[in-house]
Write a structure and sequence with these properties.
Radius of gyration: 29 Å
Shape: rod-shaped
Number of domains: 2
Distance between the termini: 86 Å
Order of helices and strands: HHHHHEEEEE
Largest sheet: 5 strands, mixed, barrel
Structural class: alpha+beta
Number of strands: 5
Helix content: 40-55%
Strand order of the largest sheet: 1-2-3-5-4
Length: 198
């Protein structure tokens, strides 16, 4: 009985409504499948898509190829379909309905790109980046000879973890063990240049 009701309802729609209903239903199903894949560790995006959002997020280069992904395409047409249906049901003429649907689809894509960008910024890399030591205050573990005449060591907290790193100084006198120092530079991407604090 219900199937007959659905069939009758479908036949009663005009072509314009049928197009929007088809787009809304098909892409909503794909959107739900995509969400399920994301929730359980899968990825519904097509690796052959022209530019992945994740690939461009880190560069923060503004609007670029990150718009052309399968995820964004699905989001665009999902919003396009439902907003088109809502506008047409409210009596808006067909031309304005299409424009509103396109605007809503583009807004959805912009929101998704914005969210992906910010999620990417929250990701924490387990690899220590020594550049994050610049201007930090730390403590000497082994004394540091003056005027870059040898290496000492410091204990420094970088990215939430305590590290023991080699250090040199331009100071005129040796920096003893247990002294508080400030990182003023990085030599050869591996040695901290420090100075004693007063």
């Amino acid at each position: 009985m219900e199937l007959l009701d659905i069939s009758s309802w479908w036949r009663s729609l005009d072509v314009f409504d049928k197009i929007f209903w088809s787009i809304a239903i098909c892409f909503s199903i794909l959107f739900i499948i995509q969400l399920l894949f994301s929730a359980f560790g899968g990825d519904a995006d097509d690796p052959s898509a022209i530019g992945s959002a994740d690939e461009y997020i880190g560069d923060d280069i503004g609007i670029g190829h990150q718009f052309f992904t399968v995820k964004n395409l699905i989001a665009f047409f999902t919003m396009f379909g439902w907003v088109g249906l809502a506008a047409h049901s409210a009596g808006v003429n067909k031309g304005v309905t299409i424009l509103l649907a396109i605007a809503a689809g583009l807004a959805m894509v912009i929101i998704m790109v914005f969210l992906l960008r910010n999620v990417n910024k929250l990701r924490h890399s387990g690899t220590m980046q020594i550049q994050n030591a610049l201007n930090k205050v730390c403590e000497t573990y082994l004394f540091i000879p003056p005027k870059r005449n040898g290496l000492g060591k410091v204990h420094i907290r970088i990215q939430g973890s305590l590290h023991e790193l080699e250090a040199m100084t331009d100071d005129e006198i040796q920096i003893p063990t247990g002294k508080i120092v400030k990182v003023t530079g990085i030599l050869n991407d591996q040695i901290l240049l420090v100075t004693a604090t007063i």
